[in-house]
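pasting for ref
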Amino acid sequence: MNQNNIRNFCIIAHIDHGKSTLADRLLEITGTISHREMKAQLLDQMDLERERGITIKLQPVRMSYALDGVSYMLNLIDTPGHVDFSYEVSRSLAAVEGALLLVDATQGIQAQTIANLYFALEQRISIIPVINKIDLPGARREETASEIISLLGCSAQDIQYVSGKTGEGVGDLLSAIIARIPAPRSTSDARFRSLIFDSLYDEYRGVVAYVRVIDGSLRKDDHIHFKTTGATGRAVDVGILTPKFKSVESLHAGEIGAIATGLKSIKDCRVGDTIVHVSDAAIPALPGYKEMKPMVFAGIFSKDGAEFKRLRDAIEKLKLNDVAFTYEPEHSLALGYGFRCGFLGMLHLEIIKERISREYGLDVIVTVPSVAYHVIRKGSEPMTIRGPLELPDESAIDWIEEPWVALDIISPETVIGPIMSLITDKRGIYHTTEYLGGTHHTGARRVIMRFDIPLNGIIVDFYDSLKSISSGYASMNYDLKDYRKADVVRMDIIVGPSKVEELATIIYRDEAYRRGKKIVETLKESLPRQQFEIKLQAAIGSKIIAAERISAFRKDVTAGLYGGDVTRKQKLLAKQKKGKKRMQSSGAVDIPTDTYMSILKR
């Protein structure tokens, strides 16, 4: 196809603003999917996405559309909306020339709308503002348009109005995509270069790379070279996604497609790498992507230690499909062999855990989440730690720095007070409040509040608390800002004579007593009683800050005695006392998995 008739674009929006539903209508109206094959959230390939009603993975699809007798190739990438998956959005934007900025007419601009807009502006691509859900009774077309005009500086005529559910306005939107999104500026006669923006593993075809062809063309069975990893292979198959993989003879400059590489080693294919012909291995690589650094860390262990190999294979394959996910081997005395994993946030962690369970049939334990700290040591190089067990002795530390984020919250002005209180409780710092154009459907004006807050304060239950105090109307977005000094310490949990490494945490010094007391109380309720007394302690260094005891079972060992001298009873009681003392000194206290989970859930 003529390169001037190709349009590459993606849909970006806040979570639950109707991206997947609009993508369904685009597929239906362009005839890519027949009415018989059509189903809701067609591009959401995982059951988990359908159940939760959210997009987790970006998904490319090719459509054909005729306008005024001219046939056009439309390459769409559907993207996630949650802040934890923003890296998927940034990768998608680097592979296209335009974006549809989708805004829900009933909710207006939300925090992730603005964050995704900034991603698009950085890529210098064309943006078409689209107001969705105009068919709903609560739609606020004029107020939402006013917010978009204020944010983008565009005119009212630039805004498209659609209903992803009914299809109203989608035909006009397709015309706007063709008219306002530029054709690719690739060179078809240059040597082949393509950018990998996503990948997955197929049991039969090996690693399948989703690519945007920048220059030249690639045919099936051509020999290929990966610039970053140095791996070589053969294009076992090349194809397009409709959205199922469909083989084609070749891929050309400006197109988005997939290359089945035949590689069996997952490490040979990286997102952001450049694929070229083997004969052109010396040509420069494409810029690729900025590496995404995980913000939350937790250990993942299999409940059955014999399943470690399957767990490793599962994590390696998830890494191929999710470049922001990191892992390294870890060993625990209580939980066995596992992995220390890095995530972009708590939802990311939850999704990875659920995918391991569903896609690979493994039951896993996740240890308490933590963030990465910078430790400035006396007379030594600074170090970064990702878990409490890595923290050096307090006497060797000058100070510790924790990550802070820039937090944006959009909400009705009526809940400014409760939000301020929540931020204060989480040690946040207030900066500014700005009023957005338009009003909320409750009649209140909408504001965007900006704060700095420790990352540790928002990774566990902050989002739920924010939704609760705002009746679900507030939204948030955050970006890592810097590292700042923090008065944090390592708190150990001691059960019997032994420290339980999996329950160690890094915690603010002034919160240690309250948190330690809560943990030992939970342990007292959860642990089964033994034949000996169990001491439960929370400690900072050698100082015990909270303690509880589980009393021993009382067993009457003299019940079977009859007659004889009293010394017979005394001998039995002395023997029982020695046995209990020996059992207590051995510290053989088995902590059930359910007890770990009740503590880790906070």
